[in-house]
UniProtKB/TrEMBL annotation:
<feature type="domain" description="VOC">
    <location>
        <begin position="2"/>
        <end position="110"/>
    </location>
</feature>
<dbReference type="InterPro" id="IPR037523">
    <property type="entry name" value="VOC_core"/>
</dbReference>
<dbReference type="InterPro" id="IPR029068">
    <property type="entry name" value="Glyas_Bleomycin-R_OHBP_Dase"/>
</dbReference>
<protein>
    <recommendedName>
        <fullName>VOC domain-containing protein</fullName>
    </recommendedName>
</protein>
C-alpha cells in the first residue's frame, strides 16, 4: 500500500489563515488549487492545506512529527507564533499551537533525554 496524506484544516478566511500557517510552517504554500484553498507540501506525499469552510471551522486537530521538535518550536517562535501548551509522554513532546479559528496543530517528536 502506498502511504501519503493530504490533510485539510477548515478556516473562516483563507487569506488570513495563510499568513498564520506560513509563519507556523516556515514557508509559503506550494500551490493554490483555487481562491479558498492553499496547500503546503511538508515532505514527499505529505501535504496540509487550509480551506474556507464555515460549517467546519475550528475542529481541526493535527500533529506534525519532526526530528528536533524543540528547535522547530524555537524557529516558529522567532517567526512570531508561540505555543499555547506543551504535552510530554515519555520521551515524546508535543507543543500545541492554535490558529485564530481554534484549530490545533501540534509540533512534536522524540526529545533527547
Amino acid at each position: 500500500m502506498a502511504v501519503g496524506i493530504f490533510a485539510g484544516i477548515p478556516v473562516r478566511d483563507c487569506k488570513s489563515a495563510v499568513e498564520w500557517y506560513t509563519k507556523l510552517l516556515g514557508r509559503d504554500p506550494a500551490f493554490w488549487p483555487n481562491d479558498v484553498e492553499a496547500v503546503w507540501q511538508l515532505a514527499d506525499d505529505l501535504y496540509v492545506y487550509v480551506i474556507e469552510d464555515a460549517a467546519r471551522v475550528g475542529g481541526g486537530v493535527s500533529m506534525i512529527w519532526v526530528d528536533d521538535p524543540a528547535s522547530e518550536v524555537d524557529r516558529i517562535a522567532a517567526r512570531g507564533i508561540r505555543p499555547t501548551g506543551k504535552e510530554e509522554h515519555g520521551g515524546v513532546c508535543k507543543w500545541v499551537f492554535h490558529d485564530a479559528d481554534g484549530n490545533e496543530t501540534g509540533i512534536g517528536g522524540q526529545v533527547a533525554s
